[in-house]
Amino acid sequence: MTLTFDVRRQHPELVGPARQTPRETKRLSDIDDQDGLRKHIPFVLFYRRGAAAADPARVVRHALGEALVPYYPLAGRLREVEGRKLVVDCTGEGVLFVEADAGVRLAELEAAGLTPPFPCMDQLLFDVDGSDGVLTCPLLLIQVTRLLCGGFVFALRLNHTMCDAAGIVQFMSAVGELARGLPAPTVTPVWSRELLNARSPPRPSFPHHEYDPVPPTPFPPPGDMVTRTFTFVPADIAAIKKGGGKATTTFEALAALIWRARTAALEIPAGEDARLAFPADVRRARGLGLPAGYYGNACVYPTAVADAGALRGGSLGDAVELVREAKKPVAAAAEYARSTADLLALRGRPLLALGNLFIVSDNRRAGFGGVDFGWGQPAYGGPAGAMFVLSFLVAVRSGDGEEEDAVAVPVVLPRAAMDRFASELKTMLAAVR
């Protein structure tokens, strides 16, 4: 039985920087403003009751205004200039903030399963009318919902062109530090988006199959889609890694497994290419020069391509090898990032190749689990859901312990394909145990 509850919201308000901030226009990078990032993405964090009796909505709202002083571009608005280039006008208009109360306890949410799909998520992060545009709209929507038990839900929707997962975690952590009484964030934010612009003249040096000009695969009807999260405990992960071959990483093993199962579940015909893309963070790439505190998009998207029939008929080890081969160019991360920016500039910011595309984003080390507003670490922190072409790896606890030693993977598929996916996954897991 699906858990349902009432959520009572107050009127949305704009929260701007607590003090005067520069009025200027800043250009986004050529990685930031690619078409595939021109969308909003939701995250959610669930917190238990704290020792203090403070109101979480009041605490977060105050800290948010303080954090928007050093992060003042997030309080601005995007617009396009020549060649559809995105710039942010730092107007100080603010971000949307919603305060709410829900008639549910965290224990009830945990009993229902604290992984996507979350009950009443559309009420825990309410889509304020007119707020979801890419241009001229607030760049963040934040909702703090108090629970009956004294815990609360912090939900956030982000204009993806401004930050990636690591960047928004940096901002949320700054809000948390200010909420806990620190005088300033421990990490000073840095703009420096010009470091990820195309060279002059642009000169791509890699094939970049992630942007191959292939026809997109039609999406199934939204009404037929279902979301289900598959959780892999340590014993599962160890068996899958062993089945993947020597020195297989957790990411390689899970990405390969899920890609194979999904390809089979969707019955992609032999002779068609299946694609697996995965964001790779280049923040710490030697030679790129991104400073500590950079909070823009700093991911590239290496992509494995395989004949769907060969992928289904091969072994898990074969799929792992495809993932490894796709990762190899990122060993030269600085050059790969510059080459990506060059290609995006030359080809007018194309979308990722959407022909039988599946994206697996590893959020296990993004830092959501460390965001603390004064109530300790969240019971869950990470993406609020998934999409047909996009799944996440999220670190979760496998039992009552403190260690996040399991991996949750939310998957979105048509209903019939989801049944086949679960069956394929069960068969594949049995084969490696």
UniProtKB/TrEMBL annotation:
Query: What Pfam families does the record tag this protein with?
Result: Transferase
Q: Where are the transmembrane segments?
A: none
User: Which keywords does the record carry?
Assistant: Transferase
List, as start-end ranges, the regions of compositional bias called Basic and acidic residues: 21-30
InterPro entries hit by this protein: CAT-like_dom_sf, Plant_acyltransferase
Q: Which GO terms describe its molecular function?
A: acyltransferase activity, transferring groups other than amino-acyl groups
Q: Region Disordered: list its residue ranges.
A: 11-30
Give the record's family classification. Belongs to the plant acyltransferase family.
- Protein name as annotated: Benzyl alcohol O-benzoyltransferase
The organism that produces this protein has a lineage beginning with:
Eukaryota, Viridiplantae, Streptophyta, Embryophyta, Tracheophyta
